[in-house]
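Z., the sequence and structure:
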Amino acid sequence: MLHIKTLEEGLDVFKALGSDIRIAIIRLLLKNNGMSMNELASCLNITNGALTGHIKKLEDCGIVTIVNEPAAHGNSKMCMVWLDKILIDFDTAESQKNICETEIRIGHYTNFQIYPVCGLATASRFIGEVDDPRYFAHPDRVDAEILWFDKGYVEYVIPNFVPAYQKIDQLSICAELGPNAPGTDAVNPANITFVLNDTAIGSWISPGDFGDHAGIFTPDWWYGNWNQHGMLKTITINQAGTFLDGLKISSVSLKDFMLDYKSTIKFRFTINEEAEHTSGLTVYGRNFGNYNQHINVRIQYSQM
């Protein structure tokens, strides 16, 4: 998912989508799960030169990517759609004033209870031994940029820097998530539950492990048969309920928590043992996956 926080930030995306032929390109790529440049040009009845210009506009704003794949005579350029959703904020400049934003590193969890298959890694190495939960307490865990486990949870304390005498009106957590490593399976759902201050606020079923092609930022040393990237998901809770990428997933709202500038805020990513789909969880941070970010947090507040 691409999160556009201002209209100005999204100008390149809007321009890229403002073309019938580029919309046709996206439709064809989605329908066929990727196509070569030659196949696209043939289907659209345009020259490869004309197609290259359109693909570049889509590639520059992150909508599509090009992967070189071996072919009978050299390499073939395969085009693929990288985004599953685009979320656009229409907040006014005035509403942007009362916002605290911060980034939490993947390894900065404050509590955990996890079961193998599990592990942590930085951009250059594993932290401790894979499949040994004891290493989730290793001092080097703070440097982790990816973590995975089969069942259990990791919990983060969200920094609360809301000014004095302000109440919290909305809380958003954005992270790249997917089922657990190692191994990949495109049809391998995982029921990921989100927990705020010990209360489940909603869940999402991740469709599968994405290992058919490398994540854009996944390092070269990472095993090719382990999952490569997840999906960028934004969990938002406000006075109206809990939302995932803008769609309501539960009626649990901030009215149930009464958060303000003095509140401790704890957030968990959980795989419940009794859930229907228990394929584990991978949380991707910088230098892994497709989005090159850790866990982004956004708190909107107003006077009490």
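The first strand starts at residue 2 and ends at 4. Residues 2-81 form a domain with the Arc Repressor Mutant, subunit A fold (CATH 1.10.10.10).

Let me know what you think.
H.
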